[in-house]
């Protein structure tokens, strides 16, 4: 079960605090396992409050010097980190596939995607502009400065072990903030490898730390700290709500990227092949384990049967297996709990009248492998209409009118992504404007990139990541009123 790396030192069993690789005070560790085989692939320190507090102090001590460097200088350091990440793309992808399960080509894609945030925010660092406003009386000059918020914290999930980190660290460091990152306990190895490359790129001691271990204890220390001025979290709505409440006493700034329940609407006038391609891309990427995965697929009556036929053929042809094997497009799910959730959503739907169009049976590979599944006859009364499945199951709902589809799509407390497939340009505008989500994909199932503002409305979160808006989340305006 050894991980074959060109740079074996990228596999770490220590955390990064104040530029040093350290274990937990207790000496305890946390095992990291390969979801495809169950084999242990590494272990990381099981840290708690004390180590987190030291990491926060180190970030605070590093802040003045980092903030004082020119944007151009910080950009150069980030640029070097980007280059090193790309240079070690394969090693990082290997670590990722082993601890997370996604197919190796998908992992390589994520590494490039992760690096793109570092590159983008290295560029944006140089474009943090203030404002000069009109004075209200003679001799008055109004200037708005943009300053880094200060010490920031990030808590990230296991489904994108690299990209969810870089899209927080990139803008934070570019803005002149320092950061403490708590990666997901299921996928800390990719994170620590990024830390090795960060040091190599010249990111100074204390500017970026990684702390692994007891999520609740680390989270509490980060939320309760007076020094930490901002928390950026990606994960479940449930934990997001808890963190938000824990941050209330110190009035911390928050960015929250929480659960989704993405509708994908296929209208009668859609190109059926593009719709199938979009459904596959959106629903089955990362075995359905992304927060922007289509969770409810609404299909208009006139195209329904044609779409089902082609979708079933495409889903039936997917290859499930260990992500290291060539040709595999569906890796294992992250753990047994994830499998149970998909199973429950299928059982619930079937008990209320849905039908299996393809899949639905246990996968012969066992473990946490799951056969990609399509259900038809799904309705709003079923659990999948209200909750994220986070697995490779596509539920198809049939609808008659556009108004009905938009109302059904908006019938959820979530509002992250939505997708529509139609060739009618008026409908594209109407429906895009009518959907209560932060993002809409039109005739595409892939919408995430560093250029665009990623984020949700309603209970899917606060703030945006990526794009020129992403760096604003780490800046505070300061208004200076000058009188001659
Ligand atoms: P998921 O259900 O997808 O694993 P979570 O919200 O549980 O999503 O996990 C996302 C991140 O939140 C992970 O890094 C996890 O360790 C962290 N986390 C979970 N519980 C807490 C908590 N009580 N305090 C702080 N972080 C937490």
Automatic annotation (TrEMBL):
One Pfam entry name: Aldedh
Cited InterPro entries: Ald_DH/histidinol_DH, Ald_DH_C, Ald_DH_CS_CYS, Ald_DH_CS_GLU, Ald_DH_N, Aldehyde_DH_dom, Aldehyde_DH_Superfamily, Succ_semiAld_DH
Recorded GO CC terms: cytosol
Domain of life: Bacteria
Active-site feature positions: 257
Signal peptide: none
Keyword set, alphabetical order: Oxidoreductase
Gene Ontology biological process terms from the UniProt entry: gamma-aminobutyric acid catabolic process
The family this protein is said to belong to: Belongs to the aldehyde dehydrogenase family.
Cited PANTHER family: SUCCINATE-SEMIALDEHYDE DEHYDROGENASE, MITOCHONDRIAL (PTHR43353:SF5)
Protein name (Swiss-Prot/TrEMBL): Succinate-semialdehyde dehydrogenase (NADP(+))
Gene source species: Achromobacter aloeverae
């Amino acid at each position: 079960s050894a991980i074959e790396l060109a740079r074996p030192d990228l596999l770490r069993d220590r955390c990064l605090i104040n530029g040093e690789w350290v274990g937990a005070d207790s000496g305890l560790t946390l095992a990291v396992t390969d979801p495809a085989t169950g084999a242990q692939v590494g272990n990381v320190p099981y840290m708690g409050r004390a180590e987190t507090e030291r990491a926060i102090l180190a970030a605070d001590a590093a802040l003045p010097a980092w903030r004082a460097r020119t944007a151009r200088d910080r950009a150069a350091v980030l640029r070097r980190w980007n280059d090193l990440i790309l240079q070690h793309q394969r090693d990082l992808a290997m670590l990722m596939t082993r601890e997370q399960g996604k197919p190796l080509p998908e992992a390589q894609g994520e590494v490039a995607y992760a690096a793109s945030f570092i590159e983008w925010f290295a560029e944006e660092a140089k474009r943090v502009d203030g404002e000069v406003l009109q004075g209200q009386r003679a001799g008055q000059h109004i200037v708005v400065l943009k300053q880094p918020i200060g010490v920031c914290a990030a808590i990230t999930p296991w489904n994108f072990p690299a990209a969810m980190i870089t899209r927080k660290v990139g803008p934070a460091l570019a803005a002149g903030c320092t950061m403490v990152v708590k990666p997901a306990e299921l996928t800390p190895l990719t994170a620590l490898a990024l830390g090795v490359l960060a040091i190599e790129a010249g990111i100074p001691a204390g500017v970026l730390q990684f702390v692994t271990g007891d999520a609740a204890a680390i989270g509490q220390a980060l939320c309760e700290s007076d020094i930490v001025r901002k928390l950026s979290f990606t994960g479940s709505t449930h934990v997001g709500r808890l963190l938000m409440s824990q941050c209330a006493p110190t009035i911390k700034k928050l960015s929250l990227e929480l659960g989704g329940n993405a509708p994908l609407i296929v209208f009668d006038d859609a190109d059926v092949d593009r719709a199938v391609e979009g459904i596959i891309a959106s629903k089955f990427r990362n075995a359905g384990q992304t927060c922007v995965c289509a969770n409810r697929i609404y299909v208009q009556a006139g195209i329904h049967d044609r779409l089902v036929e082609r979708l079933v053929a495409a889903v039936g042809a997917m290859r499930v297996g260990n992500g290291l094997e060539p040709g595999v497009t569906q890796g294992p799910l992250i753990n047994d709990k994830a499998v149970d959730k998909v199973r429950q959503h299928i059982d619930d739907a079937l008990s209320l009248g849905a039908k299996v169009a393809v899949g639905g049976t246990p996968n012969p590979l066992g473990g946490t492998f799951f056969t990609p599944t399509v259900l038809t006859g799904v309705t709003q009364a079923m659990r999948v209409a209200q909750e994220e499945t986070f697995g490779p199951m596509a539920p198809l709902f049939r609808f008659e009118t556009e108004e009905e589809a938009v109302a059904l799509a908006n019938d959820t407390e979530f509002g992250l992504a939505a997708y529509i497939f139609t060739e009618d340009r008026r409908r594209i505008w109407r429906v895009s404007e009518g959907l209560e989500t932060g993002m809409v994909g039109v005739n595409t199932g892939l919408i995430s990139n560093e250029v665009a503002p990623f984020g949700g409305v309603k209970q899917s979160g606060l703030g945006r990541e990526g794009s020129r808006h992403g760096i604003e989340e780490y800046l505070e305006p300061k208004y200076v009123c000058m009188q001659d």
